[in-house]
Amino acid sequence: MDLTISRLIDVYGSLLTEHKREVAKLYYHFDLSLQEIAEEKGCSRQSISDTLSSVREKLLYFESSLHLLELLNERAREREALLEFSKALPGEQRAALLHILGEPSEAQAGQ
Prior knowledge:
The chain is built from seven helices and no strands.
């Protein structure tokens, strides 16, 4: 669940208040404890716990409404499938597909 919340922060973090975004990043991205964040922010441990609970609730609501993380994951799977498919293509076609995907072709990688 923590990894999912961390990814949701990356996707929807700009929709949170600055305070909630900072607290969430300190906890989920930098692995600070509730106590460490409370000391950093000058508030109680319970306040940080409440903030994180609110952040989780908001992020899950955003995802259930907008499905952006789901779409990003789907696009990543499709991209991987295209990269795998490109291995079966002849040189010029493979290079063209890799170019479209923003991947270096073998000729570029060898330089």
